[in-house]
Specification:
The protein is α/β, with parallel strands linked by helices. The protein has helices at about 60-65, 65-70, 85-110, 125-135, 225-235, 250-265, 280-290, 295, 300-305, 325-330, 350-360, 375-380, 415-420, 435-450, 490-505, 515-530; strands at about 1-5, 15-20, 25-30, 55, 80, 135-140, 145-150, 150-155, 165-175, 175-180, 205-210, 240-245, 275-280, 320, 340, 365-370, 385-390, 395, 400-405, 430-435, 455, 465, 470-475. The protein has 3 domains: about 1-215 and about 410-475, Ribonuclease Z/Hydroxyacylglutathione hydrolase-like (Metallo-beta-lactamase, Chain A), CATH 3.60.15; about 225-405, Rossmann fold (3-Layer(aba) Sandwich), CATH 3.40.50.10890; about 490-530. The strands form 4 sheets. The chain has an 8-stranded mixed β-sheet. α3 runs antiparallel to α7. Residues about 485-490 have low confidence and may be disordered.
Length: about 525
């Protein structure tokens, strides 16, 4: 029974953990890396085609975004997650594929100017995303599920995003049972719309995030509505726009909730009818999924509005932009307005166009409302860069760059401590992941020295034996180095197809001789064709 840490080890994005138990190969999350990555991630311990299950904590891309690549490389197992996460992934994974394909098309257009450059292939395609979505198995919160002989799982609402969950895994081998709890991303308390994180009673081992393990959010109950209203009024009085780079799923809906209250209470004097544009097809679809899952995921405050017939995230003056033409028209309207657009870290999507039109205008405000990973455009804007490159142009940064302090889907240090101290008995060991290098070290030290918890922050590649409670391999950090590209993306895809073929052959061991002989003849025939 072995646990191997693959991604988000001393880093914030690219979450992935590998569990080998009861003869099964299991991944907990398989996320995309975003921003600047400091350390190399180890390869998956097994071929993608051999993975039996993926357990998904929530739909954010840094936890789910590489799952279609598993399908592209032969994965044919099950993806288990909550019902709301299943709904969100049905749109988010397709959106990711669309972005990959767009970027590949753009790079290929650019490469036409240079001779001898192989065509760029997307990381995965829409077909790969659709194949992954078809393998998703929606699960209810709080229900024990028998995954296979010897393994049970349960999803618990952890209050980070609609459908987000911590995952309890019970594994029994050699007459011994171990319980591992994967925290996923632990939510901030008192968020609009969704419930607070629920505690878990017990665990032998815990894998927990530490995104904000070195800091506290603002005041205990910050008045986001009042603060946002103040920013809106200051900007509108100058004749500018408030541009909000926002994650399409979760944060956008929270901002809409705040704006509905601002409009209802007429808090922006002189601009009561200000227009609001949500310029993200993904955000529009996600908002519909929020409504679909309100009964199982909304908190009591939001449910009071629902029961009264009030839509918590809709109001007069809200425009949902779907087409590219609708998006372009937003910046040709001189009326001071709110523009909410993805992506939240400004790395892709329509937000980059809105930044191009508004960053150079001193009367405008760019308002950040979520975590910005190191190296992203959002992060360097917050850090005070004076000019940026967008679409081949240099843009001066003259707009006011603001943040809505304390607004976060992640628990702060106190929230993380409250969650881990919610276990009735201290776990045998707590593994700290999903935090920047210094944060993982600081939070681990805090758990050990101040709270008496046996904590450890593994680097990618670390292997732990759950039966013996021992580290079998303690990986060292390997700094990221730029690698020379030695093989084409198409050849990598071909190699993946070969790996899948080997996995299929292994799975047919013990089959009928007649069928195996026919299979062998088909493979040999294919080899003869290409080996000529």
């Amino acid at each position: 029974m072995k646990l191997i840490f693959v991604g988000a080890a001393h880093e914030v994005t690219g979450s992935c953990h590998y569990l080998n138990a009861c003869g099964k190969h299991i991944l907990v999350d398989y996320g995309m890396e975003q921003g600047v990555n400091v350390f190399e991630n180890c390869e998956l311990p097994v071929q993608e085609a051999l993975i039996d299950y993926v357990l998904l904590t929530h739909a954010h891309v840094d936890h789910s975004g590489m799952i279609p690549l598993l399908s592209a490389r032969g994965f044919r197992g099950q993806i288990l997650t909550t019902r709301a996460t299943a709904d969100l992934c049905s749109i988010m994974l397709r959106d990711c594929a669309h972005i990959q394909m767009q970027e590949a098309e753009w790079k290929n257009r650019k490469a036409k100017r240079s001779a001898g450059i192989d065509p760029h292939q997307p990381v995965y395609t829409m077909e790969d995303a659709d194949a992954a979505i078809k393998r998703i198995v929606p699960c209810d919160y709080g229900k024990e599920i028998e995954l296979c002989e010897g393994i049970k799982i349960r999803f618990t609402d952890v209050g980070h995003l609609l459908g987000s969950a911590s995952i309890e895994v019970w594994a029994t081998e050699e007459g011994s049972t171990r319980k591992i709890v994967f925290s996923g991303d632990i939510g901030n308390k008192n968020q609009p719309l969704i419930k607070d994180p629920a505690r878990t009673k017990d665990a032998d081992f815990v894998v927990m995030e530490a995104t904000y393990g070195d800091r506290l959010h603002a005041a205990e109950n910050p008045d986001y509505v009042k603060e946002l209203a103040k920013i809106l009024k200051e900007t509108f009085d100058k004749g500018g726009n408030v541009v909000i780079p926002s994650f399409a799923v979760g944060r956008t809906q929270e901002i809409l909730y705040f704006i509905r209250k601002i409009k209802e209470e007429k808090l922006v004097k002189g601009h009561e009818g200000f227009p609001v544009y949500v310029d993200s097809p993904l955000a529009v679809e996600a908002t519909g999924i929020f409504h679909k899952n309100e009964m199982s995921c909304f908190d009591e405050e939001a449910m009071k509005l629902v029961r009264a017939g009030i839509n918590p995230i809709s109001f007069p003056g809200l425009t949902l932009s779907i087409t590219s033409n609708e998006s372009k028209e937003i910046n040709f309207n001189n009326t001071p307005k709110v523009i909410i657009s993805a992506s939240g870290m400004c790395e892709a999507g329509r937000i980059r166009h809105h930044l191009k039109h508004n960053l150079w205008r001193p009367e405008c405000t760019i308002l950040f409302v979520g975590y910005q990973a190191v190296g992203t455009l959002g992060r360097i804007l917050i850090e005070g860069i004076q000019e940026v490159r967008l679409f081949g142009e240099t843009i001066d940064v003259r707009a006011s760059i603001r943040t809505l302090a304390g607004l976060s889907g992640h628990a702060d240090k106190d929230g993380l401590l409250e969650w881990v101290e919610g276990f009735e008995e201290k776990p045998r060991r707590v593994f700290v992941v999903h935090g920047e290098d210094s944060v993982c070290k600081a939070f681990t030290e805090c758990l050990r020295m101040e709270h008496g918890i046996n904590a450890y922050a593994p680097y990618s590649g670390t292997e732990f034996n759950l039966l013996t409670n021992k580290l079998e391999y303690e990986a060292e950090p390997i700094p990221v180095k730029k690698k020379a590209r030695t093989v084409s993306d198409v050849f990598v895809r071909l190699m993946a197809a070969g790996q899948r073929l080997l996995a299929v052959i292994r799975k047919n061991e013990g089959g009928a001789n007649k069928d195996l002989a026919k299979f062998a003849d088909q493979i040999n025939s294919l080899c003869d064709k290409w080996d000529a």
